[in-house]
Amino acid sequence: MHLRRSAAPYWWPVPRKAGGVWSVRPSPGPHSLNYSLPLAVIIRDMLRYAKTLREARYIISRGHVKVDGVVRRDYKFPVGLMDVVEIEPTGEVYRVVPDERKFYALLPIPSQEAHLKMLRVEGKTAVRGGRLQLHFHDGRNLVAPPDAGRHFKTFDGVLYDLKGKTVRAHVPLKLGVYAVVVRGSNVGFSGQLCEITWALKRAQSMVALKRGEEVRRTVLNYVMPVGFDAPLIKISP
Fold it and tell me: What CATH number does the domain containing 23 carry?
């Protein structure tokens, strides 16, 4: 039910030795504890709209905050990778993106992108009618159009329209696409996918990303395709 500050993920922007003993434990939801932020921590510690948890809870309970276009009144709601956070009274829109210094950071984005979100395919399931249901990294599911599901593979990226609940673009996992590292020691690094060394377990395959003259390697499970020659949406300042 509770979470000590000392036990919170190391990248959370909460002081460990000041401000009390306890922090906010995220509710069960689309993202796990280690890879998400409670909405109250975003409002209080990242955006600084509140000084105390009481004030943050008041702001959230009044319906002033949207996540992926839906008003969230639960101050423990987990916000994770690529989620879009909107502050209704100010009109500000932020996207949770991987960052080389902060692990996950809030990136201001134009309002025109508030309904767009990059998702990664985590798996597929056959459903009635011979169609395939796609499972994404944020817990979202989508039944693919007939004869289209076979084109999607695990670890592919898709540009998702939150309003229309449709796939705008499909970014297959292949050499040459633009990808970003979303976990691990190279989190936040982005570049062209220049090498794939397949392993028995596909998620543990080694990949290399190149940006300019710099090349970094990581496991496939830590990479998300986000575009072709460049990201389809804003993921860096």
Answer: 3.10.290.10
Query: How large a percentage of the chain has pLDDT more than 70?
Result: 100
3-state helix, strand, coil in the chain (%, to 5): 15, 40, 45
Q: Domain count for the chain, please give it.
A: 3
Which range of residues forms the domain containing residue 204?
A: 178-227
78 Cβ neighbours under 8 A, 6+ residues apart: 26, 27, 29, 30, 31, 32, 33, 36, 37, 38
Burial call 38-68: b when 16+ CB within 10 Å, e when fewer: bbbbbbbbbbebbeebeebbebbeeebbbbb
Percent of the chain with pLDDT over 90: 90
Residues 103 and 183 in one domain: no
Q: Are residues 8 and 94 in the same domain?
A: yes
In a domain, 234, yes or no: no
Please give the pLDDT value at position 130.
82
Instruction: Tell me what pLDDT residue 18 has.
Output: 76
Helices (H), 7-108: 39-41, 53-61
Same domain, 215 and 156: no
* 193-233 pLDDT tens trace: 999 999 999 999 999 999 999 999 999 999 999 999 999 99
β-strand pairing of 92-99 with 214-219: unpaired
